[in-house]
Design brief:
The chain has 9 helices and 10 strands. The protein is of the alpha/beta class and 247 residues long. Strand 4 and strand 5 form a beta hairpin. Pfam families: ABC_tran. One of its GO terms (molecular function) is ATP binding. InterPro entries: AAA+_ATPase (IPR003593), ABC_ATPase_HisP-typ (IPR030679), ABC_transporter-like_ATP-bd (IPR003439), ABC_transporter-like_CS (IPR017871), MetN_ABC_transporter-like (IPR050086), P-loop_NTPase (IPR027417). Keywords: Amino-acid transport, ATP-binding, Cell membrane, Membrane, Nucleotide-binding, Transport.
Length: 247
Amino acid sequence: MSGSPLIVLDRVCKQYGTTPVLRDCSLAVARGEIVVVCGPSGSGKSTLIKTVNGLEPYQSGSVRFDDEEVGARGTDLPRLRTRIGMVFQSFELYPHMTALRNVMLAQVHALGRSRAEARERALALLARVGLTERAEAYPADLSGGQQQRVAIARALALDPVAMLFDEPTSALDPEMINEVLDVMTALARDGMTMVVVTHEMGFARKVADRVVFMDEGRIVEDRPAAEFFAAPATERAKTFLSKIISH
């Protein structure tokens, strides 16, 4: 992890009407770094990571990705989003397309790859997430964990330089969570830059370089993962951790 940070948020503020959602949030993520963002519901976690690829506009501050200002008027957001993979809570697969076609689609339309190239890449990625045998299955015939793994393969198909995960396991049954976390852990080992909103503290403890704890739209703590779990600096984080880990 060297050079300038890949992702930089500087005093970002956002509100819906008169309701503040992000309050002076600053964060830098180095290339190859794994950052877990956690905190209670409504603390601004999902909004924070969605500012990185322009899905959430912000009223003030700055968001830069690879030295490009995300919120600038001239920024080509569709092009930028090909470089930033995004995996949501809901899988958002096209129900009328097979897993293979779901992973092929954006390659053809966003990157201009031939169908043959897109198919080859899609098959390789489905193998990477352990779904070779389900390539021709439709989403309705896949488990939630399998659908989320297809969604990860689809995001990786555009060859992103960073991945954003917005509570990727929150819609899954407990027995399906680990199969998704295992894929994410493998990505981390391969050096992918990742910002992950999650309540899975076991994953955070095992994989994260840093933990960002948010409350009421503010970044309350931003510390190395080992330090955060050993001794949170704030009472709010201690209370949150005690509830999450005991649960």
